[in-house]
Amino acid sequence: MGMRLLLVVTGLALVGVPTTDPRRDFLTRAELSPRDSALHALNRLAYGPRPGEVDRVAALGVMHWIDQQLAPSRLPDRVLAGRERGFAILSHDADALSQVFTNARRERRRESKDGMAPAADAIGQLLQVVGQVQQLAVVRAVLSERQLQEVLTDFWFNHFNVYFAKGAARVLMPVYIEHTIRPHALGRFENLLLATAQSPAMMFYLDNWESVATGARAGARGPNENYARELLELHTLGVDGGYTQRDVMEVARVFTGWSIARPAQSGRFQFNEWAHDAEEKVVRGVRFPAGRGQDEGIRLLKLLANDPATMRHVSRRLCARLVSDQPPDGCVNAAVAAWRRSGGDITAVVRAIVRSPDFWSAQAVRGKIKTPLEFVVSAVRAVGGEPDTTVELAEVVGSLGQPLYLEPSPEGYPESQEEWVNSGALLHRMNAAAALAAGRLPGVTVSLDGVLAAGKEPDTLIHAVDTRLLGGILTPESRAVLRGQLDAVRNPVAARALAVGLALGGPEFQRQ
Amino acid sequence: MPISRRVFVKSSGLALVSLGMDPLFLERAAYLPYHPLPSSTDPVLICLFMRGAVDGLNMIVPHGDPVYYRERPTIAIPARDVIDLDGFFGLHPRLASLKPLWDEKVLAAVHAVGSPDATRSHFDGQDYMESGTPGVKATSDGWLNRYCQHDAEHANTPFRAVAFGPQLPRVLAGTAPSLAIDDLQAFGLRLPRAAARDRLTRAFEALYAGAETGLLATSGQESFEAIRLLRRANPLQYRPANGAAYPSRRLGRSLLQIAQLIKADLGLRVACLDAIGWDTHTNEGASDGQLAGLLDELAAALMAFTVDMGERMRDIVVLTMSEFGRAVRENGSGGTDHGHATAMLAIGGPVAGGRVLGRWPSLDLASRFEARDLAVTTDFRALFGEILARHLGATDLAAVFPGFDARPANFPGIVRT
């Protein structure tokens, strides 16, 4: 009760009001120092701190920083905007991309027919699409000032996962990320759901494009249930959300005819009246009268988006990402309440999660293990690294076990530490950390001189690495191990690289 | 000269060591006194995934079925080239080197095997065959990992389940520890100089043995344990035995490394590897051509492995699999489009070989799946399940293949009992 009151008070005090008094921020988090709070927020709502950033956020006031992140359009992001100009993929529209696909397919056919070498350009372009999209994700995660938007774009992509390597998905993906997911990352869930349902990428990935009414055309297979099933189980209600196999079949009938135009004719979303099952359907007891065409699908999506089971299921997944692999009820309830109040405004839901005591609890802080993407990006940010526009850094993320946009299952990448931590994977992380610190990691330029002078005494060096780059997380045991290693290294540049490599590859930095 | 010796001579162009040796895995009863005892006789399963959907009908050829020749005017294997097996089925000529294994009854094929799901998407087909739950996309782990989860007895080595490749395949994804090894030589911390590498290894080991607890600590310790075990056992010291000659590309290299791990006795129980390129939509070829080239490499790699392992093959099963087969009728580009059932091969001492297993559904139009493809008469889970149960000793198949009735009555009979 008292806690809730305090929250309301701090919430009110902070909306839109720059707060420089750190004590005000910490009414709800008595045990966390301002720096600890800043580090926690930077770990969960961003991809980790850049050098010195923990101090900057602590000085600004962590709640104020969070409010800034919740309104990304007001945050200038010039450095990233400049870097994005190096990605040709962003200037291709859907038509240009489907042309890339058509060209590549024609070349492949020609090759196998005539035994001639294909025009390297056509297929090369197609592969470049994949690489560019992956690298762009890494560059944005490293460099963007709008960190929460990047985190949530990644979260929503994963929630509405599409597998990049399934045929035409390769060229449908850029539009899916840029226009379907990204604009809605902090918008209304209903709009996000509607956008994914009408995206060629999702319709292709979950086979809905070939889902037609039984008997609509000779030789056609009838309704395909894949999209219907994942829509209920993963995107909205959740597996225990209260629906039956019969409902899945009815939902599949609702979405018959939701398809894609041929790649040569734009490859955009298209509703095919001829393929649609025009009869009446009943989904979870709700009647969908005959003859409503595409509108009944829209109506169903809106119902699903605002169903209490959806609120709980999606809130729980958000909390698993932001708070804890097994999120406590408190933050989930807070998110659901905010969802209900705001009509599914994602900004309001995330704000409620971040203001819930569970977000700042001792169990939550440093209680999650970084995914490979989070590990690589946070390590690059920690040393102030500059990713280039090649695909190499994205390939490092892939080699650590999380090839971007290449998770085949519609469930997306898991949010549980058991899936990410195993012996082979940890060795890969140690290798990547040592290579990054030595400036040998492909795809990124690191200049430690800019963030950490060489030539310090071992204890000073370790202290500087810990506080300036890592946010002060090294245990006394780890500092002692580093101390022992540094004694044997005379070359100051090598000593600095060793200290940074061990710190980034060690256990503390795997946590967030 | 016993036929088995001729196998080795013919197939591997081989060295003389093996000339005086009987390949004892063929005789489960005894081994020759001068041959060293195998250090371990734990059963091993090697899963070779032929990605891209292999044309089962041109691999294990139903040459006794006239429909086969009618539907494939340019790509059928001419009867004179087929290596006959039982009067009805025969091997593609480029698998000829495997024929002696058939004669010794350590090679079997299962035909018309596949998934009950109708998908013709590579992605979905592979996904289902690896998750072991056809039609259910939300399964997050793979059937081999689920097997490992229920095999507590062999959990004490980091090398129990190993995939050879840059990433863990879906079939091994899950909570049971499993390793992806791209290259045995590069496993561990990578620094050019040995002294620096050792120092860094010790430093990281000390860090992970520090204040950290839980999963990070145990996985960290496992990592260094694996490095130590590898160093001590030094699998790279094992050169191919009996004159085995592995093909030089990825498939051969992976099988060679699996052989090295087995010889190093590190507790390997399941291994996975891929063979790619089977998506023969165009210019598939018949006795020669694209598919022939791939089968050539496959046979050479399998034979090299079999020769290399020698009598250890008594406890090893190599199983091939592929997401689906290809259409019965050839297409307009001299190839075959995505189909339904395919054929799978099993090699090893435990295999009830010399037989093509599974009920043959016939190629008549009326018997085909969707009037087009070879129908599935053996669910792949029945085949995989039998091998898990009768070869690896799995006791809880319901947990490995949820929703599938894995009763022995449904097994195709691939394992000698």
Structural notes for this entry:
The complex is a heterodimer of chains A (512) and B (417). Chain A has helices spanning 2-14, 22-25, 34-44, 53-60, 62-70, 78-84, 94-114, 120-143, 147-159, 169-181, 189-197, 200-205, 226-235, 245-254, 294-305, 308-322, 329-342, 346-355, 372-382, 392-399, 417-420, 423-437, 458-470, 476-486, 492-505, 507-510; strands at residues 258-260, 269-271, 281-283, 286-288, 386-387, 444-445. Chain A has 512 residues and is mostly helical. Chain A has three domains: 2-70, no CATH class; 90-305, no CATH class; 372-510, no CATH class. Chain A starts with a helix and ends with a helix. With 417 residues, chain B is an alpha/beta fold. Chain B has a single domain (3-182, 239-410), classed as Alkaline Phosphatase, subunit A (3-Layer(aba) Sandwich), CATH 3.40.720. Helix content of chain B is 30%, strand content 12%. Chain B has twelve helices and twelve strands. Chain B has helices at residues 3-12, 56-59, 66-71, 99-103, 122-131, 143-149, 194-208, 214-233, 250-263, 290-309, 380-391, 397-400; strands at residues 44-51, 60-61, 83-84, 90-91, 107-114, 161-164, 179-181, 270-276, 316-321, 342-347, 356-357, 378-379. In chain B, the strands form two sheets. In chain B, strands 1, 5, 6, 7, 8, 9, 10, 11 and 12 form a nine-stranded mixed beta sheet that branches. Chain B has a three-stranded antiparallel beta sheet with strand order 2-4-3. The radius of gyration of chain B is 22 Å and the shape is globular. The model of chain B is unreliable at 1-38 (pLDDT under 50). Chains A and B meet through helix 7, helix 13, helix 21, helix 22 and helix 24 of A and helix 5, strand 7, helix 7 and helix 8 of B.
